[in-house]
Design brief:
With about 140 residues, the protein is mainly β. It has a single domain, classed as Nucleoside Triphosphate Pyrophosphohydrolase, CATH 3.90.79. The protein is about 15% helix and about 50% strand. Strands 2, 3, 4, 8 and 9 form a five-stranded antiparallel sheet that branches. Strand 6 (about 65-80) and strand 7 (about 85-95) form a beta hairpin. The protein is globular and about 40 Å long. The protein starts with 6 loop residues before the first strand and ends in a 16-residue tail after the last helix.
Length: about 140
């Protein structure tokens, strides 16, 4: 299924520690733009969004998470690398167990060179760095 031709249901987990938020770095070569996004992914057919979030963290970081409060939903229409995309994004607070806490996580994905890192929330608040989708700015407090 081509994710650039459908409205895709997505779930993202927001985890904060010491005024930092766990994100992955992305790069749009058409816009020449570096951006950040919380971790998560697509919700599969007949899969509960909380279970999808747990699955994504297990697949990508090989850790178990605790899913907390539902924070909201947004419709995200955007372009990435010159392609139009459309998502419905659900947001949850999550916790990572202390035993699984790392300063940097290697993301197990088709792009083996990507990492999840802790970034100071103030860098997003003062617009020094970009975080997507834009609704994320509401959750940075």
């Amino acid at each position: 299924m081509d994710k650039f031709k459908i409205i895709r249901p997505v779930v993202l987990g927001i985890v904060k520690k010491d005024n930092k938020i766990l994100v992955s770095e992305g790069y749009d070569k058409v816009k020449d733009e570096v951006f950040y996004r919380c971790l998560g992914g697509g919700i599969e057919f007949l899969e509960d969004s909380k279970e999808a979030l747990k699955r994504e963290f297990k697949e990508e970081l090989d850790i178990d998470i605790n899913v907390g409060k539902f924070l909201g939903i947004t419709e995200n229409i955007f372009t990435f690398n010159g392609k139009n995309a459309h998502e419905l994004v659900l947001f949850y607070e999550i916790d990572i167990n202390d035993k699984d806490y790392k300063e940097k996580y290697h993301i197990i994905d088709e792009d083996s060179g990507s990492y999840a890192i802790w970034v100071d929330i103030d860098k997003f608040k003062n617009k020094e760095l970009k975080i997507y989708p834009n609704k994320m700015y509401e959750f940075l407090n």
